[in-house]
Amino acid sequence: MAATEATKAADEAYDVIVLGAGPTGENVADRAHAAGLSAVLVESELVGGECSYWACMPSKALLRPVTARAEARRVPGLKDTADVPLDVPAVLAHRDEFTSYWKDDGQVRWLDSAGIDLVRGHGRLAGPRRVVVDGERVLTARHAVAVCTGSRAVVPPVPGLAEARPWTSRDATSAKAVPGRLVVVGGGVVGVEMATAWRALGSSVTLLVRGDGLLPRMEPFAGHLVTESLAEAGVFLRTGVEVREVRREAPGGPVTVLLDSGDEIIADEILIATGRAPRTDDVGLETVGLTPGSWLDVDDSLRVSGVTGGWLYGVGDVNHRALLTHQGKYQARIAGAAISARARGVPILESDRWGAHAATADRLAVPQVVFTDPEVASVGLTAAAAEQAGYRIQVIDQDVAAVAGASLYADGYRGRARMVVDLDREVVLGATFVGSGVGELLHSATVAVAGEVPIERLWHAVPSYPTISEVWLRLLEAYRG
Amino acid sequence: MAATEATKAADEAYDVIVLGAGPTGENVADRAHAAGLSAVLVESELVGGECSYWACMPSKALLRPVTARAEARRVPGLKDTADVPLDVPAVLAHRDEFTSYWKDDGQVRWLDSAGIDLVRGHGRLAGPRRVVVDGERVLTARHAVAVCTGSRAVVPPVPGLAEARPWTSRDATSAKAVPGRLVVVGGGVVGVEMATAWRALGSSVTLLVRGDGLLPRMEPFAGHLVTESLAEAGVFLRTGVEVREVRREAPGGPVTVLLDSGDEIIADEILIATGRAPRTDDVGLETVGLTPGSWLDVDDSLRVSGVTGGWLYGVGDVNHRALLTHQGKYQARIAGAAISARARGVPILESDRWGAHAATADRLAVPQVVFTDPEVASVGLTAAAAEQAGYRIQVIDQDVAAVAGASLYADGYRGRARMVVDLDREVVLGATFVGSGVGELLHSATVAVAGEVPIERLWHAVPSYPTISEVWLRLLEAYRG
Question: What does the pLDDT read at residue A3?
Fold first, then answer.
């Protein structure tokens, strides 16, 4: 039955029911279907999920012109582009196009062509292998139900904040106009990316951070370099501050942000980017013995722990393993394979490190690119995380600007790279690159980390001259001494 | 003894003598010195070699502004940069700066600090382990002599060509003014890169190619995509043509190029980029039983075959294994390690695949980036080369533009990727990427190919979303079916 023809019927049975039609849910359904299982997606919002409409796609559509302009300005012969301002309406229109104007027809067509059913409405578990949509339509799953409902931005209980109708990541990526003054609360990826984008589009931006720096989960130099460049772009950064109260007197009017220091900041919008919560508060977890609103505890095959019969999966943000679209899709590939193997009665070993049914990369090789200027790209363990995990490590740092390919790429190139080596196995545990053009370089490290390629063999992986990737040679030379 | 203090003396003895102070020679000397051996470089031209003054550095300094401008033009909000012409004097001045104004003081200072001696002059072998510089100064080598004299452009014996004083790669990378009309002969890397650069700097360019397409050693689609973009840039391409005669009536005057078709092309300069010859014609090969002017036949430790005592090495272009700066430097690292191991009497196995003393990547994992627009990046074996070598292969092609990261990177992105898989071992034998921004992506494939990472494990190397590197996921999905 094709997606658009899905009709109401009592107790419709599927092999696999997927709650949530974001990239993760779509991939679970696709994998199951490709393995010969019937699959249905239940979605109450837009098919395509957060990523397509309010995260990766629109944010990168806003950020790419910023990066491209910054890079052109760093090249001799193009300095004049420094004086060409970004065409803001063109950038926003482009962003709108990349979100398909917040319509999901294209995604629905894809489901249709892929042979995956779609049920629009709010799905809730109603006991084992049973999902009720909008309180009336009942779906049953022969093999598995996968909860792929993702996460939402948390608005902390600051007095007056909710009433001030703050921006969350959804508003920051979909806003139709440039606020004159924008306060961004939070120094994680959303905070720094949106500060970068809206500053370049013309806002005066103040970035408020509770801790002492930006991008706290990454190597410290990443936050330092981004701090430096945001300052140069004219972003006001205040670290070590808490928002005590927020007031917006009139809808559409200015917002006053009171800090614990007693300072007040007046702005036109406030973006809250301080954390995420799982969208599991209203999916019927209590009907299967789990706690509504909790992150789902899963094994490496993405199966939820403690559910009798092992038919429930939690894939993507909901399991809190790695809140990234690509990692959710990866989990979906693994979960889809595990579901179909179990459906066929094939025994699988979910604890088999790097096996076909174990999302091992979630623990050892999660890549992430932050599309700021400079870009930040990291994979695997930071030095701190590796030490905490008990590895005996060596940390190698390198100034990326010292590489010919970098200095050719941009005048006044600034960047830094770190490689974390496991001294016992002589493999790379993690790598971080900061600088222009490192976003595509990251995958080399991801292959090295996930592939556990010995340092000795990496010595034979020759970086092409003169590219930025020659930083690898410098890192390896430094390690080998 | 420091470089600048090197003085004349009869029969000066070193552990290692290196002929040619390009990047390859410098690295051989550096590795030997780091291993505790004394080393001397003999150089008759500039220390730093072809790459620093007449190849990689100046060509990329000319090309980077072209690419950066092209990329800015493909981003919404920056279309106005389409109307900002390249500032030609600024680009040329930048190129001059990157070649250090064709002075080698910086490189000599580096030798000095590294503790490597330099003898300026023309070095020739004079029997085993003996080098005579400029016919008078005699150097002897306790352990090894390495010939790292590189290659030069070949000017074919076309009537009138030599007399017309054509450009070779040296002139094309160091020219002080933009020729109004430029004829480029040759569709390899030098030909397409210099056609790209000079066209963007304002020349009318005609590219003449003997064969039926560009970049003939790479996957065919690479040449097709570059052909398409050169045409759009306004380069006239003529394939299947031979230059029959060249005439330049007066120095500085126009040059007339006669084709075998009978057509005549009149231009201001003609660049010959049809091939390279080893600079071994005057290094005394005949004194050790070898043929002057020949490419040196070496084993995987870079030791020249058939020389009694095994003291002679041929590293870099001279051995014709891979005429690329980074590959010469790689060979230098391997050769330096082999020389020092042998000097210590440590037995080495030069045939040990991927071992510390075998330049295995020369045969299996040579990377190359062509800095055209779109960029072309390849590593390892092409489908044709893999088949010819007897591998049982599967070829996977993918439209790079179908990847979200690519469409976000540039409007109207055009690109293509190919992965060549060894079906017996399920590893990647080669990969080619064409498109904007793929230059840094290449190293991921280089790590996969040199690391022989199984496809099964590459499945866990998650590309960060939304980057162009997600093309890996598409390639792997297509392979796994």
Answer: 46
Please tell me the CATH code under which domain B162-274 is placed: 3.50.50.60
Residue A227: phi and psi, rounded to 5, are -55, -45
Q: How far are the Cα atoms of A19, A188, B99, B144, B320 from residue B41, in angstroms, in the given order?
A: 69, 51, 20, 12, 21
**Euclidean distance between CA atoms A244 and A261, whole angstroms:** 9
Bigger pLDDT: B7 vs A401:
A401
- Given a contact cutoff of 8 angstroms between Cβ atoms, the answer to whether B89 and A76 are in contact is no
- What pLDDT band is residue B81 in, cutting at 50, 70 and 90? low
SS3 sequence of chain B = CCHHHCCCCCCEEEEEEEECCCHHHHHHHHHHHHCCCCEEEEECCCCCHHHHHHCHHHHHHHHHHHHHHHHHHCCCCCHHHHHCCCCHHHHHHHHHHHCHHHCCHHHHHHHHHHCCEEEECCEEECCCCEEEECCCEEEEEEEEEEECCCEEECCCCCCCCHHHCCECHHHHHHCCCCCCEEEEECCCHHHHHHHHHHHHCCCEEEEECCCCCCCCCCCHHHHHHHHHHHHHHCCEEECCCCEEEEEECCCCCCEEEEECCCCEEEECEEEECCCEEECCCCCCHHHHCCCCCCCCCECCCCEECCCCCCCEEECCHHHCCCCCHHHHHHHHHHHHHHHHHHHCCCCCCCCCCCCCCCCCHHHHCCEEEECCCCEEEEEECCHHHHHHCCCCEEEEEEEHHHCHHHHHHCCCCCCEEEEEEECCCCEEEEEEEEECCCCCCHHHHHHHHHCCCEHHHHCCCCCCCCCHHHHHHHHHHHHHC
CATH number of A3-48+104-152+278-361: 3.50.50.60
Confidence category of residue A4, pLDDT binned at 50, 70, 90:
very low
Give the chain B residue nearest A88 (alpha carbons). B77
Query: Which chain B residues are closer than 8 Å to A91 by Cβ?
Result: 76-77
Please list the residue range(s) of chain A that carry CATH number 3.50.50.60.
3-48+104-152+278-361, 162-275
- Which of A36-45, A70-79, A160-169 has the lowest average pLDDT? A70-79
- Is residue A285 scored above 60 in pLDDT? yes
The pLDDT value recorded for residue B4 is 43
CATH code for the part of the protein at A162-275? 3.50.50.60
Put simply, the answer to whether B77 touches A86 (Cβ < 8 Å) is yes
Q: Residues A215-226: what's their mean pLDDT?
A: 98
The label of the residue with tokens 């009497």 reads B345
CA distance linking residue B205 with residue B225, whole number of Å: 18
**Nearby residues of B157 by Cβ (< 8 Å), 6 or more positions away:** none
Question: Would you call B60 and A472 a contact, using CB atoms and an 8 Å cutoff?
Answer: no
Residue limits of CATH 3.30.390.30 in chain B:
374-480
Q: In a mutagenesis test of the B interface, which of A75, A201, A438 is the best target, namely the one with the most B β-carbons within 10 Å?
A: A75
Judged by a CB distance cut-off of 8 A, whether residue A401 touches chain B is: no
Average pLDDT value for residue range A360-366:
98
Instruction: Identify the pLDDT of residue A81.
Output: 62
Is the pLDDT reported for residue B7 higher than 80? no
d(CA A199, CA A62): 11
| Segment B135-162, tens digit of pLDDT | 999 999 999 999 999 999 999 999 999 9
Interchain CB contacts (distance < 8 Å): A and B: 272
> What's the CATH number for B374-480?
3.30.390.30
pLDDT band at A73 (very low <50, low <70, confident <90, very high): confident
Beta strands A181-185 and A204-208, pairing class? parallel
Determine whether the interchain pair B356/A443 forms a contact, defined as Cβ–Cβ distance below 8 Å: no
Give the mean pLDDT of chain B.
95
> What percentage of chain B has pLDDT greater than the value 70?
97
